[in-house]
Amino acid sequence: MVSNLTDTNIISVSGLTKKFKDFVAVDNISFTVKKGEIFAFLGPNGAGKSTTIQMLTTLLAPTKGKVMINGNDPTKNKDAVRKSFGIVFQDPSLDSDLTALENMQYHAVLYKVSKEIREKRIGELLRFVELWDRKNDMVKTFSGGMKRRLEVARGLLHHPAIMFLDEPTLGLDPQTRNHIWSYLQDISEKQKMTVFFTTHYMAEAEKVADRIAIIDHGKIVAMGSLAELEDKTKTNSLEEAFIAITGNTIREEQVNGTGRMRAMQRLWGRR
Amino acid sequence: MSTIYILWLRQVKKYFRTPSRIIGSLGQPLLFLLVFGFGFGSIYKQAGQGDYIQFLAPGIIMMSVLFTAVFSGIDLIWDRQFGFLKETMVAPVPRWQIMLGKTLGGATVASFQGVIVFILSLIVGFKVHDLFMLPVAALFVFLVALLFTSLGIAIASRLEDMQGFQLIMNFLVMPIFFLSGSLFPLQGLPKALEVVTRLDPLTYGIDGVRESLIGVGTFGIPIDLLLVVVITVVLLGIGSYLFERIQA
């Protein structure tokens, strides 16, 4: 019975802590995510969401605690973990002096997607995110939404078991937001791909996540499905539940300067 | 292998896609070649040293190799600031392959820049003494390009942003250029200057290229080659060591 449980948990985290000198960014958090689940990490900026993602994706070493990603420890088997996930970072990570196609090809080579299936797969994905017509255009000519879609397509290229998305829709218009989620939900359902995303948009977590963890000041203060969270707090929406749990709402004022800059950057492009 | 190739390809593609940058970066070597070449030419001749353009051209070729190489290494800072480095760092590939691909790409670009300046200097009146020595000169150019791209990457691995850029330019790259015997002969220098020139790795690169192109040198090709190879290997090592430690 125990082995059965661990089999289905594609992400398991226990007692995870990250300290930067005196500041505790992530404070002893534990959770598990099942295969095929869409899991939201909801919290205000500075709550420790990005730090957690960095630790799960081999980019940052935890101060304490244990992480298993698809059966591997990110501090020990870095490459095995890296092969098993795709990621969309909070800030854009495309080469804007290359074309959409070239960005995809670069990724395919780094992830050893074999030559025979490479072009076909890239073609499928670019059509999927509706960028096929623009495949030979430089990424610097793309809008914020197009860049995001390309990053999602790129993250999916090597058939990851888990897709990590750090504030994937920050600064995007509702239509693009819906688009991106419809791609991800579609693939998650068809291929049992796990999606782990962070957000500070209530509506987003409410709409797409199977389960939600509410994180505040580095701690997970509540976790469960939308219905469970509402039940527990005897409320009718995630927003009310959030207020009941944390004592305040995610106000836009809590979005700090960096967050605003990021949003601007995505709207207007860089340089 | 494929990782190294794709990183190399990216670097080379981006270079050839911005002809304005290529042309722009030819301005300075051309200016040096013409102004110094013809400006000091008559004094040089009066001193009984012969044609200054002959002496100067290899130095200017290597100047453009030096600058292009250091900057294509430092390019890494842009990748970091614009987030692209993360995409590479989170991929399941060894970091030394990333570093090597990027270094080879930068070195290819810098060597190409050297070739353009070489052609320009031929137009200005530079003459090669022995065509069969051209491959040797090319080898020196590529090694020096590799050496300084590694240096650029090593520096960029320790820099957070472009703030320190001016510092590196004024206190590292310019001195390396001026103290390398690119503009003046290495014989008969004051003792202190002589010591400093011999500590500059570019000195041996230029000496090697000069001897292969015009048949006159100071240390001899074997010594030049040995020193350049050793320093290149050491800097490649330091570069990959520091690159390994980058926190994307």
Mean pLDDT of chain A: 88
What is the H/E order of chain B? HHHHHHHHHHHHH
- Report, as a whole number of angstroms, the end-to-end distance of chain B: 23 Å
Query: How would you state the average pLDDT of chain B, rounded?
Result: 93
Q: Percent helix among the residues of chain A?
A: 40-55%
Q: Would you mind describing this structure in some detail?
A:
- The complex is a heterodimer of chains A (271) and B (248).
- Chain A is an alpha/beta fold and 271 residues long.
- Chain A has one domain (2-63, 76-268): Rossmann fold, CATH 3.40.50.300.
- Chain A has helices at residues 2-8, 49-56, 78-84, 100-110, 115-128, 144-156, 174-191, 202-208, 226-233, 238-246, 257-268; strands spanning 9-20, 23-34, 38-42, 64-69, 85-88, 162-166, 194-199, 211-216, 219-224.
- Chain A has a six-stranded mixed β-sheet, sandwiched between helices. A three-stranded antiparallel β-sheet of chain A has the order 2-1-4.
- The longest helix of chain A has 18 residues, at 174-191.
- The model of chain A is unreliable at 1-6 (pLDDT under 50).
- Chain B has one domain (2-244).
- In chain B, helix 8 crosses helix 9 (134-158).
- The mean pLDDT of chain B is 93.
- Classes of the chains: A alpha/beta (271), B mainly alpha (248).
- At the A-B interface, helix 3 and helix 4 of A face helix 1 and helix 7 of B.
Compact overview of the structure:
Helix content of chain A is 42%, strand content 23%. Chain A has helices at residues 2-8, 49-56, 78-84, 100-110, 115-128, 144-156, 174-191, 202-208, 226-233, 238-246, 257-268, and strands spanning 9-20, 23-34, 38-42, 64-69, 85-88, 162-166, 194-199, 211-216, 219-224. Chain A is globular, with a radius of gyration of 18 Å.
Write the layout of secondary structure elements.
The complex is a heterodimer of chains A (271) and B (248).
Chain A lengths: L1 H7 E12 L2 E12 L3 E5 L6 H8 L7 E6 L8 H7 E4 L11 H11 L4 H14 L15 H13 L5 E5 L7 H18 L2 E6 L2 H7 L2 E6 L2 E6 L1 H8 L4 H9 L10 H12 L3
Parallel strand pairs in A: 3-7, 3-8, 5-6, 6-7
Antiparallel strand pairs in A: 1-2, 1-4, 8-9
Chain B lengths: L1 H15 L2 H6 L2 H13 L1 H6 L5 H23 L1 H6 L2 H6 L5 H30 L9 H25 L6 H14 L12 H9 L1 H14 L6 H24 L4
Helix pairs in contact in B: 1-8, 3-5, 3-8, 5-8, 5-9, 5-12, 8-9, 8-13, 9-12, 9-13, 12-13
